[in-house]
Design a protein that fits this description.
Chains A, B: Pfam families: TetR_C_11, TetR_N. 2 copies of one chain form a homodimer. The first copy, chain A, is mainly α and about 190 residues long. Chain A has 2 domains: about 10-55, Orthogonal Bundle (Arc Repressor Mutant, subunit A); about 60-190, Tetracycline Repressor, domain 2. Chain A has 10 helices and no strands. The N and C termini of chain A lie far apart (about 60 Å). Chain B binds a DNA duplex (30 and 30 nucleotides) through α2 and α3.
Chain lengths: ~190, ~190
DNA sequence: TATATTCGAGACAAGCTGTATCGTAATGAT
DNA sequence: ATCATTACGATACAGCTTGTCTCGAATATA
């Protein structure tokens, strides 16, 4: 009866996969998203061009795979002394992610591409790092008794009000929020 | 002494200029930003390719010129009965702009491009339609006596907290805010 | 008339795209 | 051991866009 637990033929090369992910990571920082090409990625990874196209259909897809894990890790905040400090810590992590981190640079590039490519938009909604991290933060402070008067129903709205201001500052003004601004946002967020 | 009030040589063709702006507007809706090319724009406008490059250096620049005036107009809100209704009206206009309007589609494409092209980022900050409109809204409600306890100093922060949530919903979740959500945002914004 | 600048049109080299094909390598089935 | 199947790196290929350059013609000023 033996069904193939492994598919037929030569197995996918893990070396090639990692080389491609690595190349994309490096090139994003070194040359920027716009200058990155599928051809350049293959050459930098020392990999056949067809091998890239076989497993990914766009540079956005590669970049997402290369940065999603880092993004989630950088946005995970360990609980502190109280709800307000937790929210402040999350907003600080969010600011650092969006303005300083390589994974954040990748996320911004992907979010940008999503604005004029529906396939990338879908892709990005499949792994909503920002939303997931924000929801985790909100669940944490709820477990502490904060936001008691706020119904669970409007969870998406809460996420938007928590993440939106910092996202706006990064995306449109290009300015990183100051610590006092972040703690102010956290205080007002919890005082609703 | 007669200094040239008009520069020497054949003057720029206004017909060609308008034809290019028109072509970009049409193509954005018909084919999307990604499919738009400088070559395609010139052909659609029935204009020489060099003529396009002579006056604009990228499709982003053309698109900004083609949509900035519409954007500013769509984000201008006439004062209503009180501060809260004014803010709600602004947020509603912002939502409609970002999710339904052609000019908003252009703005999202430009903001997206700005995330991986520094020249577009600079360009966009030169004419900050979202920020200007938000500041106008805030100045309006301040003239009504609202936000009295909030110092003028943190104006940028106010703009971010006003615009951020709706921008987040549009850009990352792709969802248009409900009217109750918008009025809730307006109420909380004024209650700080 | 002479000069200067723009116009539409198109040539041109360079680069990327996505697919196809080559011979080779690695794995499972018989 | 041999075969079938799939992935591998490498490369060729047509099609497209890019940005620059050139051409003759048009339209303005001096």
């Amino acid at each position: 009866m033996e069904q193939h637990q492994r598919p037929l033929g030569r197995p996918r090369s893990e070396d090639a996969r990692l080389a491609v992910l690595r190349a994309v990571d490096d090139m994003l920082v070194a040359e920027g998203y716009a200058a990155m090409t599928m051809k350049g990625i293959a050459e930098r990874a020392k990999v056949g061009r067809q091998t890239v196209y076989r497993w990914w259909s766009s540079k956005a897809e590669i970049l997402l795979e290369a940065s999603a894990a880092d993004a989630a890790r950088e946005l995970t905040v360990t609980p502190g002394v109280d709800a307000e400090s937790d929210v402040t810590a999350f907003l600080t992590a969010l600011r650092d992610f969006l303005t300083r981190s390589d994974a954040g640079l990748a996320y911004r590039a992907l979010l940008g591409e999503a604005q004029h490519d529906d396939r990338v938009a879908e892709l990005l909604r499949g792994t909503d790092v920002l939303g997931d991290a924000a929801r985790a933060c909100i669940a944490g402070v709820r477990a502490r008794g904060a936001l008691a008067g706020v119904p669970e129903a409007g969870a998406d709205l809460l996420v938007a009000e928590l993440v939106g201001p910092v996202l706006f500052q990064t995306l449109v003004t290009g300015r990183a929020a100051e610590p006092e601004e972040l703690s102010g946002m956290a205080r007002r967020f919890l005082a609703r």
